[in-house]
Design goal:
disordered N terminus, 3 helices, five-stranded mixed β-sheet, alpha/beta, disordered C terminus, Transcription Regulator spoIIAA, globular
């Protein structure tokens, strides 16, 4: 039986490791999904003090303006944005202003691993 694919579906997974807390995101980060992810971070952040914060955008297909704003704030606060695939790397570059290889074009405290 074929599975119907909803390209607008947004999912996130939280991983709480010994040295880092991470979100693994997939789909379209837009609209209500931005608020949902922000709330998940507010809840989780109270228990992850001292750990690195990593956001894996490898499977994100699109980010609206509100999502970009939130991710940029997290990046500027020290979050690491990572991606495996070219389309997701382009999204990170649009958020961080970094060129391929992670060289920064602005003064930010986060790290974007986009190579």
């Amino acid at each position: 039986m074929p599975v119907k694919k909803d390209n607008n579906l947004f999912r996130y997974y939280m991983h709480d490791g010994p040295h880092a807390f991470s979100f693994e995101l997939s789909g379209v980060l837009a609209g209500a999904a931005v608020g949902e992810l922000a709330q998940a971070w507010r809840t989780a952040s109270s228990t992850v003090r001292g750990q690195a914060f990593v956001i894996d955008l490898s499977y994100v297909t699109e980010v609206d303006e509100a999502g970009q704003r939130m991710l940029r704030q997290w990046f500027e606060s020290g979050a690491e944005l990572v991606a495996k695939w070219p389309a997701a790397r382009a999204i990170i570059r649009s958020i961080t202003g970094q060129a391929p290889g992670g060289s920064q074009t602005g003064d930010r405290s986060g790290l974007a691993r986009i190579c």
